Amino acid sequence: MSVTADLYIEVKNFYARQMRVLDDLDIERFTATFTEDGSVAHPHRGEKVEGREAMRTKMKSMLPMYEGLVTRHWFDHFLIEQAEGDGLRVTYYSLVTQTNTQDEVHFFSSSSVEDQMVREEGELRIRERVIHRDNPKYGRVI
Amino acid sequence: MSVTADLYIEVKNFYARQMRVLDDLDIERFTATFTEDGSVAHPHRGEKVEGREAMRTKMKSMLPMYEGLVTRHWFDHFLIEQAEGDGLRVTYYSLVTQTNTQDEVHFFSSSSVEDQMVREEGELRIRERVIHRDNPKYGRVI
Amino acid sequence: MSVTADLYIEVKNFYARQMRVLDDLDIERFTATFTEDGSVAHPHRGEKVEGREAMRTKMKSMLPMYEGLVTRHWFDHFLIEQAEGDGLRVTYYSLVTQTNTQDEVHFFSSSSVEDQMVREEGELRIRERVIHRDNPKYGRVI
């Protein structure tokens, strides 16, 4: 079932804010957009990080990969569906670019993403994110 | 005249679904998003394919170009206008990327697209698509 | 405070039209999307161009950079906030690509943009645009 225009835009605003804090490497504010037990999975490398604490640890360990670059996530083709309760299932395309000190922009990755969202105290939060990295070896999932 | 927010989002959902099936190379489901006599034109190579049957044949012949790659279409800057009857004229930018087995993302093309949409049994369908490949030789159309 | 779905889409339509005329290098119609005293700043090169007349002069001087290429601006992650009066503050990501006569697409730049919009005779216009070029040297602003 289709969601209302207001909910559609609320979801788009959620991602606009979440990507600003992610691309700003603000781990504290990024993990706060997940539920306390929220998870991020990268099935192509057999990885699932569960809970904000584990996410913070994992992200801190990966910071060196992002230093000296401006990373940007570009999303497209959102589909937003009602899930159980007042939850939502959101799927979209995700392209990641990085810019270096020489003003050169490069592709970092292309993926599709599946998010399970819930509402906590009125705010949308991610309970489960699955990132399917594009690679013909894995097949296309979304 | 501007369309309602609900119709705007219905159109965006149409493209989100259509691109998933196109990028999944699901020819059957992709051609079903066109009317039976729907057409796709590429004026820069003087080509116009008319009707679902001809589209299926053409797409099957082009499948080898897409093997071993994940193709993604990224759209932007939609303008949605009411056309005759309950039809719509939709124009937008289209960027196509491809990812190979080495996780490398490359540009495939940049274009602008004009779609004429109609409603059949409640569903939006494309009756005519014209893809203007970006190239300074052809001039910019949209 | 969040804006209505109708206003959200009106703003998106504004950018869809503004980018068509910018990417078409139509200086006259592009500057008309700004107020008469509208400005465009590029803080990373310490530049601020004020007023339509100065914008026209500046843009004409830069046309050679864009000749023989099709330039496209791709926007994402809009946040639209009410500002004083009936004004709006709009921020978003901006990726610029260029396609040459050999059909090759290249990145030109990655930026974030802050626009202050006002309404004049019913039409949205930009009063102030600040373009923050992505570069780890400058830090991330949006």
From TrEMBL, chains A, B, C:
Top-level lineage group: Bacteria
Entry-linked Gene3D superfamilies: 3.10.450.50
Record-annotated SnoaL-like domain positions: 9-129
InterPro entries found in the cross-reference section: NTF2-like_dom_sf, SnoaL-like
Protein name from the UniProt record: Nuclear transport factor 2 family protein
Species this protein is from: Streptomyces asoensis
